[in-house]
Task: structure prediction
Amino acid sequence: MKQKWLILTLVSILACAPMTANLDAWATDRKGFQKSPSTKLAPKKRKTTLPSSGKSSKGQKVKPNLPVQTGFFIPPGANTLGTHAALYAAYASDVGALSINTIQSGPALTLATERVARHLNSDRLALGIVAYGAAWAATNDQFVTEVRKLDAQIGREALITKLRTEIAFARTLRGGEQAAQTAARALTADAKSIQNQSSGFKQAAYDWQKLRWAMASTMDAKVRNNALRKLTPPAPVTETALALSALPEATLGPQTTQARTIAISDSVRLASQAARDGVVLSEPIRAWSPIDRMVSLAALSALGGPIDRKEDTEALMRDPRLVSCVNSSRLNMQMCNAATKQPYERSYCLAEHPLGEIAICMAKTVR
Result:
């Protein structure tokens, strides 16, 4: 009996030997696969895909860095709301000045890219977008009048506290919904204009592959990326900050709705009044959105809050989602730029991040 069991055991061992060898071989291959430098697992986050010219280029890693922190200067006579709106006006001006036809060399493209991308190196651009929308919301005279009536009833301090703690409150006042829609149309129209610029430079990334200067490989990606990360956002233009600080206050003389509209339109020329009027809001503006912050800021402006309540004003301007969106655009731009070797690729980076992503950030304020 014992001999029979010994024989069966020996047969089983011999039968399993090939299987064990196969498993060992599979494990060895799998270990080699994991260590192979040519094999990468799919990233969890979406990666930027540069337009292909039939040639491959190896990207460089970029370490995330914090936004450039610079002193924030408020020009004499201006307030924090108007000054932040002027920051957005500066970004809009640089976007509007972009011209594909004037770019005929790699250095010219680098300069155009840096001029727009520098605005991303501070989260105050996100605050500027909200401040700009608030300036438009403040053009609704019925809303401004209603805010001042409520101020007389419950007192300035109580009203400011309510605006801070209940972001959606201001939109419930008479004229509040109209003020919200005015801001939403202005931001949507500007976002479409920025997106048009983005589409133009994205197409150029393909068209320029026919040009020698755009196909010339360079090895200066690291230098360009370091320069991009160190760019300082421009200071707000004093005249623009003053013009936007006067809304809806009458410190510079009585102003009608038309005068306010002209002042804002002169500061930001990305979209025409006809384009703003033509925007159709397909869905209701969601509650507790950045648009609600803009309406609350317009109410605060009607009380003179941006002049003596800087902390309250900045708190209302700082929408976490919008700040995160702008910061994401900055990091994506740095990673995209670091991966480029040829100028036409940099056109794609410009289109995709400091233009396209910011346009998306602005469009999302409504939804």
Observations:
- The first helix runs from residue 2 to 35.
